[in-house]
Amino acid sequence: MYRAEELPVILMHQGGWDEIAVFLGPVLIIALLVVVARRQAPPPEEEDGE
Questions:
Q1: Which keywords belong to this entry (predicted)?
Q2: Is the pTM of this model over 0.90?
Q3: Which pLDDT tens digit goes with each residue over 14-26?
Q4: CA 19 → CA 3, 5, 28, 32, 50, distances in Å?
């Protein structure tokens, strides 16, 4: 088990993956919300030029 003094050192700079997760997490959530919103939106009505 880790001591309380060691925990902040373990959580910092894990080879770059943590920084990538901090960036990609919100991006993926927003992309998922956009996909869900587009599925729920009705298709645009096509207008005839005639």
A1: Membrane, Transmembrane, Transmembrane helix
A2: no
A3: 677 778 888 999 9
A4: 24, 22, 14, 20, 55
Task: Pick the more confident residue, 24 or 6.
Answer: 24
Is 12 buried (19+), middle (13-18) or exposed (0-12) by CB count in 10 A?
Answer: exposed
| Interatomic CA distance for residues 9 and 49, integer angstroms | 66
The backbone region for 48, taken as left when phi is positive above 0, alpha when psi lies in -120 to 50, beta otherwise, is beta
Q: What is the largest CA-CA distance in the chain?
A: 76
Q: Rg of the Cα trace of the chain?
A: 22
